[in-house]
Backbone:
């Protein structure tokens, strides 16, 4: 193995600067924008436009921790890495779900941490956890801050304080093994930073969730994230071959072979543990050669059912491209629509995107094989135009959500997964639960973007006119949709994780014995319950 510790500060040509997100919006403050003119007409027609006042920086509650306690923390990581200023605490408050944004927009930052501590490495993390146990302080691991399920909104009552364990200083590529094609990364690296460091070795991770610009390696592992290229590269948990985890009980170093029969796979217990069992301080992942070619194209299907059947055929014959996604009729119409085209032919059918990444010969062969199957099943090839448009705009939707909130339109997403034989039932019941709860004028869009031999995920986007009490409005819809998922026998989450929001449905999904197992593991690894209290464990 090559020991090649490098960090993005030293890496030339980073595609993104290390910027902080806007505390009340998604993404870079520089990209905060009014609703684009191209969308304004549609929004006006569908919901009306109700301009909201410009956002003001809300005040924060004063830190609720005894100041002298923090001296012990300063001794561990250095005084400059223990921050209690309002600006830093504001930026480490909650995640980026629509309810998170609405609360921040309306001045509620009551979940702000009392302090932000920035460890420089594994040993610092171990020492911070020991300090937290000693003083009974709650610790919230913070990666990119893109949680959409309340994963950063830990309970604080009963604790001497709550600190955000900000992994922003832990951004090194620790090692590359070009023979085994693995790399070991620190948890604080964001998606683009990890890709830039790997690219220097001619390698890629290929993990591109929509939150790619800000989400971190540790966060991907802690939430079992899935990226837009999951069909080709695999979801994040499938990429992980090893983990180092600091827990209040001691360290875990997992993953000494590509596969083993050494009892239950403890890596799987820590993947998706959302900071409740330990802090992931290093992740060893499978890597691939940087693709020579990236090619995306569009297909049209007469219906969602026909497009989904085609995806199933590809998955079950081992012919999945790197990217495959299918919008339902409504999402296709909205994505393609110009106001004058609504109801017209241009908005008909369902759009599928297929993408191929790899060496030229392999891309050509896969593309030819997939094209023959899709042709044979009745798809209409649309060429590279729609594919390139998708690839170009793939990270833009979250910025549009803020622009919609600016004019009084509530936009939120939720996701689930099921087996192919149950897909239609799940689709219909979740869509109808959302429409019934939110009432006339609500738009519900859906797409499939992660497929397996046995089933697929369904990702819903909802837009509706904001009510007087938007948090209650969304909460009722979320409960209705979540109940519908469980009633249909599906999962409460395919990739957004559990956080605080999904706990009641997780309990239904895994049953009382499953809950007991999670509680037992928590009690063993975090006996005093300082790690992310109230997150994940029902
Ligand atoms: C606009 C938008 C688009 C999104 N798109 C996708 C998508 O396409 N696919 C997808 O999978 N998800 C998506 N998400 C959800 C989110 O980005 C993922 O859950 C992501 O993996 C979280 O990473 P993060 O670094 O931001 O973690 P954070 O939000 O910082 O943390 C998430 C949880 O993990 C814990 N945690 C973080 N780092 C560690 C660590 N090192 N050790 C232990 N626990 C830790 C936190 O305490 C918290 O409970 C999206 C979110 C947004 C806002």
Residues:
């Amino acid at each position: 193995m090559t020991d090649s510790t490098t960090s993005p500060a030293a890496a030339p040509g980073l595609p993104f600067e290390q910027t902080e997100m806007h505390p009340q919006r998604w993404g870079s403050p520089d990209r905060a924008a009014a609703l684009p003119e191209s969308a304004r007409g549609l929004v006006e027609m569908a919901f009306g436009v109700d301009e909201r006042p410009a956002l003001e920086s809300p005040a924060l509650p004063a830190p609720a921790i005894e100041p002298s306690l923090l001296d012990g923390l300063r001794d561990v990581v250095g005084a400059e890495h223990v921050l209690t200023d309002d600006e830093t605490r504001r930026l480490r408050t909650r995640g980026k779900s629509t309810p998170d944004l609405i609360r921040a927009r309306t001045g509620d930052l009551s979940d702000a941490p009392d302090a932000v501590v920035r460890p420089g490495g594994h040993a610092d993390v171990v020492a911070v956890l020991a300090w937290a146990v000693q003083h009974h302080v709650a610790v919230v691991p913070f990666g990119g801050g893109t949680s959409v399920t309340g994963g950063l909104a830990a309970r604080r009552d009963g604790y001497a304080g709550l600190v955000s364990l900000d992994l922003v200083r832990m951004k090194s590529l620790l090692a590359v093994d070009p023979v085994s094609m693995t790399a070991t990364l620190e948890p604080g690296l964001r998606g683009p930073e990890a890709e830039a460091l790997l690219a220097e070795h001619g390698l890629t991770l290929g993990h591109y969730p929509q939150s790619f610009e800000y989400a971190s390696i540790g966060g991907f592992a802690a939430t079992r994230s899935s990226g837009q290229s999951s069909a080709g590269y695999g979801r994040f948990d499938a990429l992980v071959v090893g983990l180092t985890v600091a827990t209040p009980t001691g360290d875990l170093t997992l993953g000494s072979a590509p596969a083993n029969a050494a009892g239950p796979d403890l890596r799987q217990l820590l993947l998706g543990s959302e900071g409740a069992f330990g802090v992931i301080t290093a992740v060893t992942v499978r890597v691939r050669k940087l693709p020579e070619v990236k090619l995306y194209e569009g297909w049209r299907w007469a219906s969602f059912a026909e497009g989904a059947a085609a995806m199933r055929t590809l998955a079950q014959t081992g012919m999945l491209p790197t990217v495959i996604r299918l919008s339902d009729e409504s999402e296709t119409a909205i994505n393609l629509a110009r106001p004058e085209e609504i109801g017209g032919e241009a908005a008909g059918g369902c759009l599928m995107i297929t993408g191929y990444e790899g060496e030229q010969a392999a891309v050509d062969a896969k593309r030819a094989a997939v094209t023959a199957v899709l042709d044979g099943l009745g798809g209409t090839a649309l060429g590279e135009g729609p594919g390139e448009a998708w690839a170009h705009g793939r990270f833009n939707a979250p910025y549009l959500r803020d622009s919609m909130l600016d004019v009084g339109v509530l936009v939120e997403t939720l996701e689930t997964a099921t087996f192919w034989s149950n897909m239609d039932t799940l689709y219909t019941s979740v869509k109808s639960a959302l429409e019934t709860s939110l009432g006339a004028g609500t738009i519900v869009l859906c797409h499939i973007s992660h497929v397996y031999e046995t089933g697929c995920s369904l990702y819903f986007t909802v837009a509706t006119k904001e009510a007087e009490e938007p948090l209650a409005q969304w909460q009722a819809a979320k409960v209705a949709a979540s109940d519908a998922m469980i009633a249909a026998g599906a999962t409460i989450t395919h990739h957004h994780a559990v956080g605080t929001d999904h706990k009641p449905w997780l309990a239904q999904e895994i049953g009382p014995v499953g809950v007991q197992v999670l509680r037992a593991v928590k009690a063993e690894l975090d006996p005093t319950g300082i790690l992310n209290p109230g997150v994940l464990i029902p």
